């Protein structure tokens, strides 16, 4: 049995090894890694520094009767990975509600034009594009979805393994074999260039650019075309909303881990890692030592580097640290409790409230917003995305009330004028609410509660260095085999055996996807099998 195996002693001090693996961090990737290991019969413990489990995939009661997400809200990618089915998370209470229509873009206020409604039904989406833009753009969108669906499916398949030629083969597929140069052009192109190639209407291009920009970079950046191409998959499986809040995913994973004998412990901040000569690890958390055969760190890569600093050559550590960019920041959420849903001119609430409300009609707003933020300043006209998932899940708010997330990009972690975010946060939240009110008059009056999370708050509360919800900047030179650094892209730190990396810092990056947790669990299982064969413990 595993407990007999775990009675074996480590080489240095004779202390019994209690765990096959200790996982640092209870974000969804850390929990997924632990769930796979526990399901395989491994003794595993998850250690979380916070008093709340789930990391950026957690939900709390910020104000009476409202369940408020602390980080992620809409789960776009994990439903395309098979993880939910493999771990049988439905058995542990996880239920996803389809966000359909999955996106909605209102017309410019006062224009009298119809809105853009993106639903999983491609015919209905094309009809909306024809009415709001043109028949030509509707036909182009249909062709765009047909072209990008296999490419996006290849992208998702490649996200299931560490970046290597095999994964590239999944990405390339038959299309790439037939048209290698065309594929390279598609994937290396900027999102804006891709949109200009396919469509005429600026309204349509702005909506899709704002959808793609949720990955972090502006769509003017190289190699951002796939971020827009991913929209094609929303017509097969739309974004999902976990019933009970984003934290319902974490709760189901925790239940699965505990069902299979694993432990998940809050308020256990890891302060030191120490491998012994026999390959076993001592993980220090508070006043307790955890002995394990291997460690998976799903914490931010910069937090992990702080832990391993005594274990690696100083020159290597300095090179990795300098080479990893968090960027100047991504965005700022404002969570609000309201007495009604936002309403938009010419739109039914049923079509506007269930998905991502993309409040942008011109890409110049996005370009300016990014430019101002990159200079360390705040734009007077924020770009906002609204999510009102209490329209799907009334359990999030008291009867007759609603819970919304207003997400705005971009916001610098450090302000060039020297002000602190504690000074400016409320004023910026006012601007974000006002931006929504400009599209939905009366919205500001409907707000009864609010909780703003500045980039500084995200850093403090969730351990997101630089306030970047993607951990590491999602730029071309920090993606695929370069994420988070070319020497750290294989889910390991060179020279340290038995330590594996997971989380948004690793390939494939940020967002609720979970594949880095699954990959790290697979690597840990392989290591444990080989360790037993070599009688390391």
Description:
This protein has helices spanning 2-5, 28-39, 83-86, 122-132, 135-158, 165-178, 180-188, 191-198, 202-212, 225-229, 247-259, 301-308, 314-323, 349-352, 363-374, 421-439, 443-446, 455-462, 515-533, and strands at 19-24, 44-47, 59-63, 66-69, 96-98, 103-105, 116-118, 240-242, 263-265, 270-275, 281-285, 288-297, 331-338, 356-359, 383-387, 402-409, 447-452, 499-501. It is of the alpha/beta class. Strand 11 (281-285) and strand 12 (288-297) form a beta hairpin. The longest helix has 24 residues, at 135-158. The radius of gyration is 23 Å and the shape is globular. It starts with a helix and ends with a helix. Mean pLDDT is 92; it is low at 1-13.
Give the SSE map.
Elements: H1 2-5, E1 19-24, H2 28-39, E2 44-47, E3 59-63, E4 66-69, H3 83-86, E5 96-98, E6 103-105, E7 116-118, H4 122-132, H5 135-158, H6 165-178, H7 180-188, H8 191-198, H9 202-212, H10 225-229, E8 240-242, H11 247-259, E9 263-265, E10 270-275, E11 281-285, E12 288-297, H12 301-308, H13 314-323, E13 331-338, H14 349-352, E14 356-359, H15 363-374, E15 383-387, E16 402-409, H16 421-439, H17 443-446, E17 447-452, H18 455-462, E18 499-501, H19 515-533
Parallel strand pairs: 1-2, 1-12, 2-9, 6-14, 12-18
Antiparallel strand pairs: 3-4, 5-8, 6-7, 10-11, 11-12, 13-16, 13-17, 14-15, 15-16
Helix pairs in contact: 2-11, 2-19, 4-5, 5-6, 6-7, 8-9
């Amino acid at each position: 049995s595993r407990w007999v195996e775990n009675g074996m002693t480590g080489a240095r001090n004779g202390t019994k090894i209690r765990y096959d693996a200790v996982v640092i961090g209870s974000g969804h990737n850390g929990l997924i890694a632990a769930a796979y290991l526990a399901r395989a019969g491994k003794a595993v413990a998850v250690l979380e520094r916070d008093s709340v489990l789930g990391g950026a995939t957690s939900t709390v009661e910020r104000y009476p009767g409202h369940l408020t997400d602390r980080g992620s809200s809409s789960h776009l990618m994990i439903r395309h990975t098979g993880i939910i089915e493999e771990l049988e998370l439905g058995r542990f209470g996880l239920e996803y509600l389809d966000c359909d229509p999955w996106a909605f873009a209102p017309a410019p206020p006062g224009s009298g034009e119809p809105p853009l409604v993106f639903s999983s039904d491609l015919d209905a989406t094309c009809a909306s594009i024809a009415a709001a833009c043109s028949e030509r753009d509707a036909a182009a969108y249909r062709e765009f979805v047909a072209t990008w669906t296999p490419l996006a499916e290849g992208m998702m398949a490649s996200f299931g393994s560490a970046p290597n030629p095999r994964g590239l083969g999944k990405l390339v597929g038959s299309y790439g074999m037939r048209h290698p140069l065309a594929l390279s052009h598609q994937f290396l192109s900027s999102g804006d260039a891709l949109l200009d190639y396919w469509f005429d209407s600026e309204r349509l291009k702005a909506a899709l650019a704002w959808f793609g920009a949720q990955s972090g970079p502006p769509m003017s950046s190289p190699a951002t075309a796939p971020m827009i191409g991913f929209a094609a998959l929303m017509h097969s499986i739309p974004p999902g909303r976990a019933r009970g809040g984003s934290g319902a995913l974490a709760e189901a994973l925790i239940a699965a881990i505990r069902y299979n004998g694993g432990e998940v412990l809050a308020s256990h901040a890891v302060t030191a890692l120490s491998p012994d000569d026999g390959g076993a690890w001592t993980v220090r958390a508070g006043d307790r030592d955890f002995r394990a055969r291997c460690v998976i760190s799903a914490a931010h890569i910069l937090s992990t580097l702080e832990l391993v600093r005594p274990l690696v050559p100083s020159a290597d550590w300095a090179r990795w640290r300098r080479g990893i960019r968090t960027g100047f920041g991504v965005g700022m959420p404002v969570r609000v409790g309201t007495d009604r849903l936002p309403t938009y001119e010419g739109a039914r609430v049923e079509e506007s409230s269930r998905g991502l409300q993309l409040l942008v009609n011109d890409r110049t707003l996005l370009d300016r917003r990014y430019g101002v933020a990159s200079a360390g300043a705040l734009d007077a006209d924020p770009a906002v995305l609204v999510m009102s998932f209490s329209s799907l899940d009334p359990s999030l708010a008291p009867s007759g009330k609603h819970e919304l997330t207003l997400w705005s990009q971009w916001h610098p972690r450090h302000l060039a004028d020297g002000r602190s975010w504690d000074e400016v946060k409320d004023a910026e939240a006012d601007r974000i609410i006002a931006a929504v009110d400009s599209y939905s008059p009366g919205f500001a009056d409907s707000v009864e509660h609010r909780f703003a999370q500045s980039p500084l708050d995200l850093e403090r509360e969730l351990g997101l260095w630089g306030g970047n919800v993607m951990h590491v900047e999602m730029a071309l030179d920090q993606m695929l085999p370069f994420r988070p650094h070319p020497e750290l892209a294989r889910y390991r730190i060179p020279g340290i055996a038995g330590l594996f990396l997971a989380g948004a810092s690793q390939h494939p990056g940020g967002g609720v996807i979970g594949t880095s947790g699954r990959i790290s669990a697979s690597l840990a299982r392989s290591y444990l099998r080989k360790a037993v064969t070599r009688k390391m413990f």
